[in-house]
Write a structure and sequence with these properties.
The chain is mainly α. It is built from 5 helices and 2 strands. The protein has a two-stranded antiparallel sheet with strand order 1-2.
């Protein structure tokens, strides 16, 4: 099953941490194009998932939904 990050989660995280786009992208360990893809419902690789969790010390992980649910929302 393909999964996506819950819509709006990354935007809320960036706002909560008060980071510029460049700083947020860097903390995620991604380039701006890939971050945009994830925000639009692309499936994160296990490595990307880990980079985001570790980059922000997310002890509760990242909320995920099945891509079919993401696309229907």
């Amino acid at each position: 099953m393909s999964v996506a990050i819950v819509s709006g989660f990354l935007d809320r995280l960036q706002k909560e941490r008060k980071l510029s786009d460049t700083a947020f992208t860097s903390a995620c360990g991604l380039d701006s194009e890939r971050l945009r893809e994830l925000k639009n419902g692309a499936e994160p690789s296990p490595n990307e998932f880990q980079q985001i969790v570790l980059g922000f010390n997310l002890t509760d992980g990242i909320p995920m939904v099945p891509r079919s649910q993401k696309l229907a929302a």
